[in-house]
Design goal:
Layout: E1 4-15, E2 18-29, E3 33-38, H1 44-51, E4 59-64, E5 67-68, H2 74-81, E6 84-87, H3 99-110, H4 115-128, H5 144-155, E7 162-166, H6 174-191, E8 194-198, H7 202-208, E9 211-216, E10 221-226, H8 228-234, H9 238-244, H10 246-255
Parallel strand pairs: 3-8, 3-9, 6-7, 7-8
Antiparallel strand pairs: 1-2, 1-4, 4-5, 9-10
Length: 259
Amino acid sequence: MARVIIEVVGLTAGFGDDIILRDLNFKVYEGEIFVIVGGSGCGKSTLLKHLIGLHEVKSGRILLFGKDITTAREEELMRLKQEMGVLFQTSALFGSMTLYENIALPLQEFTTLSQDTIDMLVKIKLAMVGLEGYENHFPNELSGGMKKRAGIARAMALDPSILFLDEPSAGLDPVTSAELDGLIKKINRGTGTTMVIVTHELESIFSISDRIIMLDKSKKGIIAEGRPKELKMYSPDPKVLNFFNRGAISEASRKGYKG
């Protein structure tokens, strides 16, 4: 059995009096691609932001490597955060910096590496995502897919144990999205990095995920957990079946099928 990297125990999350998620319990294992899915407004990105320590929990615990980030002291929390890499929906690259400067920044901030070593690592990270030779380009000179790749390179700068990706395929065409899915799998298999990904894209869910949880807005919690292909076929919950079979249902409707 693989080691537990993340354990969420009784997590309730929200803002003010608004409860978005209630009493969540799940585990993420070392080396897996764990995907958080669900309809719009179900709390996927909210959960991700709690997992990386951007929001305080209402109640419950979030354990990273057995350490509870909800009660950790600032110094311990900073150390744990250096084990995380994050790709936000917009890639969040600094527009006034070149790709080299974007990727070098965390290395300069959190390590004592020499400049030559940082230069080498930046080139390695860009090569890892297929952007070798783009060190001196600015984000506005890149396509949407290239920005996502550059964001992943920066997120991987410190060789994190966990990579969090929020809607990595958002806004990309199907071909570019499939290429990004391939890159995610390649990095995961090549480095063993544990990945937690938020997405609603069916193609990506089936392509990359080892295991998923599905959130539901009305329940404010998890309504399914497991392998997506098995949930698509055998889930007893109509909401889960509709979610994972919506492509087939849409195609049937388009062709006028009945029954």
